[in-house]
Amino acid sequence: MVMVAVVAVVGAVAGCGPSNAEIRTARLAVHRAPVDAVLDAAIQAAQAEYALGGIDAPNLRFATVPQFYSEEGMRLTPGPEGVVQNVRGNSILMHLVVEVKPADGGVVVVVTPRTFQMISWSPKPRELLPNDTSFPGFVKGRVDALTVAIYRRLSQVSAAR
Fold this sequence. Notes:
single chain; Alpha-D-Glucose-1,6-Bisphosphate, Chain A, domain 4; 24% strand; elongated
């Protein structure tokens, strides 16, 4: 009985997100599929979690729609008129840019965050770069999650061929 409970807890924890090994594999994966198929799979994977902004198919890139988050990484939802009312100082405005780039006889998928921190006393947000001490950890988690989702989608496409 105790063993069943332990297995259930381990299974629940394992289902929380991708492992470090899977994240590393997804980041380093070189895909041998046609670039348009890779871009389509990346778009489909991103649409499962995010609204998409412009898709620049000729340049093999797209971006998610900018979204506000609390400091802790919780999405701030817009009200009935599409305006986020609960934006405060230190809230984060983020969108992700996804690019398909040639590499080593195939293509790689690169997910890059564009992150801005709202400042209480300023009408203009401050851009946060990944090496900034104020860069929120949840952004890296969202980049990793989307990278793995795209990798998984591409694995399904490759297996179906």
